[in-house]
Amino acid sequence: MQRIVVDAMGGDHAPDEIVKGAGDASLTLGQTEIILVGDARRISRLLHSVRHDGGRVRVHHAPSAIHMDEKPSEAIAAKPDSSILVAAQMVADGEGDALVSAGNTGASVLACARKWKKIEGIHRTALASVYPTELRRGAKDDPFSLLLDVGATVDATGEDLVAFAVMGAAYAAVISHNSRPRIALLSNGTEAGKGPKEVVQAHQMLLAHTGLNFIGNIEGVDIPRGVADVIVCSGYVGNVVLKMLEGVSETVVNLARYAYKEKLLWRVALAMLSGGIQRLKAITDWEQYGGAPLLGFEHLFIKAHGRSKERAISNAIKVASKAVSAGLTDQIAAGIHELEDRRGGKQRSRA
Amino acid sequence: MTAPRHVFRWDLDKTYLYSEFERVRDLVKSALEKPADKRAVPGAPALLRALRQTPGHRICIVSGSPEQMRRALQAKLRLDGVEYDEFVLKDNIRNLVRGRFRALRAQIPYKLPVLLRSRAALDGSPPETLVGDDAESDALIYSLYADLLDGRIADDELPRIMAADRAYDDQIAEASALARRIPVAPGSVKRILIHLDQRSPTARFTKYGRRLVPIYNYFQAALILYADGVLTARQVLFVALEMLADDQYELPTLANSLQDLVIRGRLHRDTAVQLAAECTDAAAEGALAGHDELPPFEQIAESFKERVRVLGDVPPLEWPEADPKIDYVDLVDSDHSRRRSKRKS
């Protein structure tokens, strides 16, 4: 049985929507126990009015919570009994297999960093995010590509980028059933020598030391096209890219709204396109993919969007459960081990 | 008939058995299913067997399944080693022949007279425990029956309630006559357990008061009956063991079920701790002999206590001391509209 620990107090709509999402997941996930960490009084009152399976949901009291607007490092230091810290500790102690939170991103990542160890051979962690693309992939015909890192490690080295590629490949294999995902480095040109030195170095290492399906560098324009299944970059670049892509999506929606108001003809045209727009909306619906996994620790953390409601939380828990049952962290560890073996072997043969 | 010590009334479909009858296809499948293929809800057979162990416990099964399924259902109970004293099914062929189509679906007009008739045939006024599910109107019917025994339903109220559930005049007359005949014995219905087959929110049942406890599984039922003094700790263990033999249940599931009852204010923390101590004693006396797959019982008991401990000082949900006065006519009406909208959706 997998045990998914959920920070019930994290998120704009916590704890109501978190408890509802956990309740929904408890009804659909077979062999999974969901541990809600937070104010037990509030959680139990909410559970009372939510459809759930009382045998699959556990409540663990944590008297305080870190709010979305708090400064992460200060809040973590000031609130050792906060829900996110208690939840991360539970996973560290072996009482849970993965953690899900929609709360303060900085505080959540910091809590994991304080309580968990990194997988041997990994120096920096990566936050991964999915992005809808034109092309589909994997056995599930997944319409998303994976972009990592999107903010956990601002200044990644070439070695870090290679480790991110290994982690991303394992995640795509487990979650999208894409056994041999196309891996690419995000750069300012497709040529091997293009980009900052860490990208150039990573390019050489990915070709030389991994058995990954590395397709080379791609440019920003290739992301929405879906040329690659896993796109690797530093947290600084990834975060800028992700925010820009989100901004473009919002602008398109705003322009459509403007057009709808402006002219009757445009309104009619939009109405005629409504079926297609709905399909587009369904594909780009962030609530369906659950959240962003933080990869590189010995345990899995799924960071759900701060605005997450019932459906997004339920999906985040399902993704966590799936990743745990497929042994994602073990697969990452095996990938890193293989990478080190290959590098060691080549260095030995050179010597 | 010797006065029974305690009467247990059980529904079958969705209470004892996993059954689907939302679609005609499900009904046909259920009718043709062999007894061995029918699946009991884990823990239900063990609980019924445990209840039967005590002399004077009377087990009455009242189901809305058609008479034509009697042989298959009885065979299933036999396979599960469940014994009973009464077994009542619905004679829907008779209803069809007489053109009483409303009676095919109506719940109160069928089940309430059956319960009253059975009660009227008993010597004395024994305590009762009623077990049903959340799929149809068991909570309402059982509460109404309990309130009738309590003398809380006025003479003119029962006909109005039954009429709201589209009962025929003769059904109303029979139920009213039986209700008048049965001696009022307040507090006769000690407990109503509603198996949450549909996983309805437990808050939906608050209106029925403390007496009714919605349960997610039969370990919870066993815990409540232990707290009520009906089952021993050893019998609770037997129910737990049967459930653990099913893939759906593991020790954490049972521990969470206990915590859920504590949170809902349906099981006192001290009772949970007392049960853990008694189960430890029972285990030491060999109650778990032959179950080498389980960890040492001290470890199990500790994990159960831990579930209570991690709740901190948080108080459970509060319950009013007095049971609320239930507006049954209003409940029947809202039940009808809920089912109508469910059918539409």
Structure description:
The complex is a heterodimer of chains A (351) and B (345). Chain A has 351 residues and is an alpha/beta fold. Chain A has helices at residues 16-28, 40-48, 72-78, 83-92, 105-115, 158-175, 197-209, 222-225, 235-262, 264-272, 274-283, 310-325, 328-350; strands at residues 2-7, 32-38, 57-61, 98-101, 126-137, 142-148, 182-186, 213-218, 230-232, 292-295, 300-303. In chain A, helix 3 crosses helix 5, helix 4 runs parallel beside helix 5 and helix 9 packs across helix 10 (264-272). Chain A is globular and about 60 Å long. Chain B is α/β, with parallel strands linked by helices. Chain B has two domains: 6-213 and 320-344, Rossmann fold (3-Layer(aba) Sandwich); 232-309, no CATH class. Chain B has 15 helices and six strands. The model of chain B has no long low-confidence stretch (mean pLDDT 90). The A-B interface holds A 1, 3, 27, 30, 33, 39-41, 44-45, 47-61, 63 and B 196, 199-203, 216-217, 219-220, 248-250, 252-257, 259-260, 263-264, 307, 310-312, 314-317.
What's the layout of helices and strands?
The complex is a heterodimer of chains A (351) and B (345).
Chain A lengths: L1 E6 L8 H13 L3 E7 L1 H9 L8 E5 L10 H7 L4 H10 L5 E4 L3 H11 L10 E12 L4 E7 L9 H18 L6 E5 L10 H13 L3 E6 L3 H4 L4 E3 L2 H28 L1 H9 L1 H10 L8 E4 L4 E4 L6 H16 L2 H23 L1
Parallel strand pairs in A: 1-2, 1-4, 2-3, 4-11, 6-9, 7-8, 7-9
Antiparallel strand pairs in A: 5-6, 5-10, 10-11
Helix pairs in contact in A: 1-12, 3-5, 4-5, 6-7, 6-13, 9-10
Chain B lengths: L5 E5 L13 H9 L11 H10 L3 E10 L3 H10 L6 E5 L1 H6 L4 H4 L2 H13 L7 E6 L4 H13 L6 H8 L4 H13 L7 E7 L16 E4 L2 H10 L5 H12 L6 H13 L5 H16 L12 H13 L18 H17 L1
Parallel strand pairs in B: 1-2, 1-4, 2-3, 4-5, 5-6
